[in-house]
Amino acid sequence: MEGWGIIIIKIVFIWTWTLLIATLMTWIERRGAGLIQDRLGPNRAGPFGIFQPLADGIKLFTKEDIVPEKAHKILFALGPILFALPAFSAYAVVPFGDKIVLGGKEIILQVADVSVGFLYIVAIGSMSVYGIVLGGWGSNNKYSILGGLRSTAQLISYEVPWGLALLAAVLLYGTFSLRDMAFAQQGVFLGFLPNWGIFKQPLGFILFMVAAYAEANRVPFDLPEAESEIVAGYHTEYGSMRLGLYLFGEYVNIYTLSALIVTLYFGAWNLPYVDMSKFLGPVAYGLASFLVFFLKVAFFLWLFVWVRWTVPRFRYDQVMGLGWKSLIPLALINLFITALFVQFTA
Question: pLDDT tens, 238-267?
């Protein structure tokens, strides 16, 4: 059992690391957009514009916090908090490496290894929609309310295939613990393939990936914002750090979803055909497992950026049709096939 000191250190580390990644992603997003669209992107604040996130942070902290006169003050204030807190809290059960052994004491690289990590993710992930809805409703702005209602319909629609894809992973690995799922992906599959979830759940991965984009409100599923139609949607009336919480919460959510994809389908910190623990010391192995996990996550973080600046936004009827007419039936078929696979290979 780890002491409270170790637990607090891990909490502080993962919150700080997540904030750092979210801050860095605001720069990568704009530099990536510039690269894809053949323009420069931010290039004034520091070399290659690297200090632009710092400048943006200073701007958000120092801007006047304006509250619309006819807004519902309590709901207006609660919206950004209820959106950001679940995004920050969800990462608590995601393993970001294997373990480090210091002085004979084993420290697992995970804030909380709970046996129901899957259920925790589903429950905490569903709460962010309240922040969007309350922000839209509390603003007392028709565009904001429309964005909030769109978000409600979209998240409910895509949480069904998202949850079914997760349930298929639970059937496959035989556990609700994300850490145990990571350990289950060691070794090889069919004698030559890495024993990763992507090779056992290819359809489940596609379903989870598409639903993750909808959960994160990213293009082509950014209907809650849709600036060309509803003027930034649910956070139209927000400024200063209230808006900053929405923007930061989105990037933290992307980071958590990318980490989940790696944990469920890409072997977490495991490398194919290589057991790092056999030739690295206990500390070096722990750091290497963290680095391997993060590099995999970094690829999917870039993929979120790449898709945003490549794929056009869907119409709202297309988004709803894809969710209810395609993804949910495919998710049910995938669950049925997974159950048969588990039954006949047990």
Answer: 888 888 888 888 899 999 999 999 999 999
